[in-house]
Write a structure and sequence with these properties.
Elements lengths: L1 E4 L4 E8 L6 E6 L4 E7 L4 H10 L1 H10 L4 E3 L8 H14 L10 E5 L6 E3 L4 E5 L7 H13 L8 H10 L3 H9 L1 E3 L1
Parallel strand pairs: 2-4, 5-9, 6-8
Antiparallel strand pairs: 1-2, 3-4, 7-8
Helix pairs in contact: 4-5, 4-6
Bound molecules: zinc ion.
Zinc ion binds next to loops.
């Protein structure tokens, strides 16, 4: 259900969960400019609203940041063997506990139009721009591309598989949209 606090120009979707340990958890989707609130089923909506009001100065900051996309340019050493090794080793480390299917080959690419790519012959290309991503974001890129080894599309079956390995994929996908690759 969607709630609005007109005083601070803020709207949020509220979802209830049984025995939700975090109590109240707020996430923000920069692309949709929407707040998402997960709350324990024992907390009444009025209490959530009070909480959202209290935190509204913080949320205003989140909203303002949306305007500023983070511009990133190719790292200057990105064509070097050491850069490629570093990036691919980092991917390998992040995949240590990943038990799904693996690619035949991993490559570094220089495209501005994707973070990762999976070809029909099971080659996964990781964009050099991924060097800017944090581990969670890069892990999402990896899970996304590995899911394409099974589903070569973005239909619900694909996203279900992504979610299996990366439950926070929606938030991480939105975080990636806040970058502009130059
Ligand atoms: Zn994809």
């Amino acid at each position: 259900m969607t709630y609005v606090i007109p005083e601070v120009g803020l709207s949020y979707d509220l979802e209830y969960y049984e025995r939700y340990k975090a109590g109240i958890r707020v996430t923000f989707s920069p692309v949709e400019r929407k707040f998402n609130v997960k709350a324990d089923s024992k907390i009444p909506p009025s209490e959530v609203e009070r909480f959202m009001n209290l935190k509204s100065p913080l949320f205003a900051k989140w909203l303002n940041k949306v305007e500023e996309k983070i511009s990133v340019t190719l790292p200057s050493d990105s064509r070097s063997a050491s850069f490629k090794n570093r990036l691919l080793n980092r991917c390998e480390k992040l995949l240590e506990n990943y038990e799904g299917p693996r690619a035949e080959q991993y490559k570094v690419s220089y495209s501005k139009s994707y973070w990762g790519r999976c070809s029909a012959d099971k080659v996964i290309s990781i964009s050099a721009y991924c060097a800017y991503l944090n581990d969670d974001q890069l892990f999402y890129v990896l899970v996304h591309e590995h899911a394409h080894l099974i589903h070569m599309h973005h239909k619900p079956a694909f996203w279900n598989l992504v979610e299996l390995y990366c439950p926070d994929y929606k938030e991480l996908r939105n975080e990636l949209k806040s970058y502009s690759l130059k």
